[in-house]
Design a protein that fits this description.
alpha/beta, Urease, subunit C, domain 1, TIM Barrel, 2 domains
């Protein structure tokens, strides 16, 4: 099937196929073509150009994009979209003065979600997660990563990943899966963290790998959760079974986790709300993508990732939602882009680069997603009639999406 978009006010994020990510000052450049057309064929981008060269007669469906802009769908490289229930009471607890860490000590936080998930059937978990997936697709997300980590038992962790895999089969969206068994120490192992890590490394990781349920392995490297030594252990175990490292790090404290991630050639290091000069220097010597989660900072009232500092250090930066029931109950990448501009001082061009091509890199799909490039997936957002690209983050409370196309089909 062919689909032709015509009279596009501005076609954004046009890239050569060799560009996998952008860094430093290059992030301020968002290549575009005004008064453009874009052709999809067999679920991929076939061609594009100025309207002066638009194909005149062809057997294709057409969408007139007069006054509208077109850009790649968002690539959300960090979510926990598969979870059970919600944690709105903890939201109220924080309003009443409790910190995220204090709630966790009381048995809330990740352990609360794990208890709910363990008691939820796989069928019900799928139904809950499918609703969230449909919502984020309508908001312009065309690819996302889903982590486990709210199971904390072998069966519950596998259940989460099976649901994520089933979502990928049922919906026309690229989903990458990550095993995050080392998200927290479950209550049953409260005084035996090493025993739980034995379970993660010796039982969970081999089963996840044998069943092909994940591409990546992750760990929450943070005070009160897992140490740098624990991080080395889990990432090494994952790599032994073919899982590529990622890492939650520097959300509340800088304890050396960034260097550990880089040492294991982690594809991404995520959170980074607290960042040291040493962390920046070690990232300069790597191919690891720093990932900021600004809506998490917004929701928890914690510092924002110093994105401006990372970019000024000639590093790349990706943006993601961290969609989860406790610290970011939203998968709205439009809000993430706006918040990065408003609170992290990214320009609209930098934020869009971070949420598209660099987001694709952070989940290993930049060869197929994240830019308008011949041969890449036919995934785009068609905006409503807007005056400029800066209007997207400026009008942060408005839904400015007219249509979302994934694999060449309008949702």
């Amino acid at each position: 099937m062919k689909l032709l978009l015509t009279n596009i006010k501005e076609l954004l994020q046009i890239r050569d196929s060799t560009i996998q990510k952008v860094s430093g000052s290059d992030m301020s450049h968002l290549p575009s073509l005004k008064n453009a057309w874009l052709l999809f064929e067999d679920e991929v981008i076939s061609d594009f150009g100025n309207m002066d060269s638009c194909p005149k007669a062809m057997d294709s469906q057409k969408i007139d994009c007069t006054g509208k802009m077109v850009l790649p769908t968002w690539c959300d490289s960090h979510t926990h979209l598969v979870y059970a229930g919600n944690r709105e009471q903890e939201f109220v607890d924080r309003i009443n003065g409790l910190s995220y860490q204090e709630i966790a000590v009381k048995g809330g936080g990740i352990l609360n979600s794990a208890k709910k998930l363990q008691a939820t059937s796989e069928e019900d978990l799928y139904k809950q997660s499918a609703k969230r997936l449909e919502e984020v697709m309508a908001l312009g997300t065309g690819a996302l990563e889903i982590k486990s980590g709210y199971g904390l038992t072998t069966e519950a962790e596998l259940k989460m990943l099976r649901v994520a895999k089933q979502l990928e089969k049922q919906y026309p969206i690229t989903i990458k899966t990550t095993f995050l068994g080392a998200h927290a120490v479950p209550a049953a192992y409260k005084d035996n963290k090493d025993g739980y890590l034995d379970l993660v490394c010796d039982e969970m990781i081999p089963k996840v790998a044998d069943e092909g349920l994940a591409t990546y392995v992750d760990i929450f490297c943070e005070e009160g959760y897992f140490t740098v030594a624990d991080t080395h252990r889990v990432l090494a175990a994952g790599k032994k079974h073919g899982l590529i490292p990622k890492i939650h790090v520097n959300q509340f404290h800088a304890i050396g986790g960034v260097a550990a991630g880089v040492e294991h050639h982690a594809l991404s290091v995520d959170h980074l709300e607290v960042l040291t000069p040493e962390d920046i220097e070690v990232l300069k010597e790597s191919d690891t993508m720093p990932v900021a989660l600004p809506s998490c900072s917004f929701f928890l009232g914690i510092p924002y990732t110093p994105g401006r500092e990372l970019i000024n250090a000639n590093l790349p930066l990706a943006l993601a939602t961290d969609y989860n029931p406790g610290s970011t109950p939203s998968g709205n990448m439009n809000f993430v882009v706006a918040t990065a501009c408003i609170k992290m001082r990214l320009t609209p061009e930098e934020a869009i680069n971070a949420a598209t091509i660099n987001g694709a890199y952070a989940m290993g799909i930049s060869s197929t997603h994240g830019s308008i490039t011949q041969g890449k997936s036919a995934n785009v957002i068609i905006t409503k009639d807007i005056p400029s690209i800066g209007y997207l983050p400026y009008a942060f409370g408005s839904n400015l999406i007219d249509k979302v196309i994934i694999n060449g089909t309008c949702l």
